[in-house]
Write a structure and sequence with these properties.
five-stranded parallel sheet; alpha/beta; binds iron/sulfur cluster
Length: 186
């Protein structure tokens, strides 16, 4: 399925099918191997950070401060690149001008990939929901796995969102994930 979305500034983004993976796509993954892979993925999550407004300060505290020590959860907050990232955190106000760039860089992340939307602005537009230039939630351009509410959420709230995502990854059936229809964002 293909879809296209047009923003107020005239830019467009299209949705398309993602590439599939051979071994997993075959649907013949033994359960112990699935569990082992899921546990490995759960505790080695490289994060790609999109700090777009004030929520980014809280995200920075969660990822960079020794007080929260996010690496104890198995999160690697180092690469400023989508190429090695496992999950994306969008924190702050997503504007219609920025939305196509968020989508483009999300497409450059390898599968399987996940998205956390942090804060009211990223969740639904927040205090700017009726602005002509603000996207009403980043889930209009990329599929979101976890929503962290708040304006802004505290770093602990983001950490809880990460732990919930890790629980989801642990229980994921990789074969099922690739057998179903691709996630299409219209
Ligand atoms: S949700 Fe609140 S704190 Fe976060 S970016 Fe929007 S206005 Fe700023």
């Amino acid at each position: 399925m293909h879809g296209e979305r047009e923003f107020s500034n005239g830019s467009k983004i299209s949705s398309r099918k993602g590439n599939s993976m051979g071994l997993v796509e075959s649907g013949k993954m033994p359960k112990p191997l699935t569990k082992l892979l899921n546990m490995s993925r759960r505790y080695s999550m490289w994060v790609y950070q999109w700090g777009l407004a004030c929520c980014a300060i809280e995200m920075g505290a969660a990822f960079a401060s020794p007080r929260y020590d996010v690496m104890r959860l198995g999160v690697i907050p180092l690469p400023a690149s989508p190429r090695q990232a496992d999950f994306l955190v969008v924190s702050g106000t997503v504007t219609d001008k920025m939305a196509p760039a968020v989508r483009r860089l999300w497409e450059q992340m390898p599968d399987p990939k996940y998205v956390i939307s942090m804060g009211s602005c990223a969740n639904c537009g927040g205090p700017y929901w009726d602005s002509y230039s603000v996207t009403k939630g980043v889930d209009q351009v990329v599929p979101v796995d976890v929503y962290v509410p708040g304006c802004p959420p505290r770093p602990e709230a983001l950490l809880e969102g990460i732990v919930l995502l890790q629980e989801r990854i642990m229980n994921e059936d990789m074969a099922e994930r690739w057998k179903g229809d691709p996630i299409v964002v219209e």
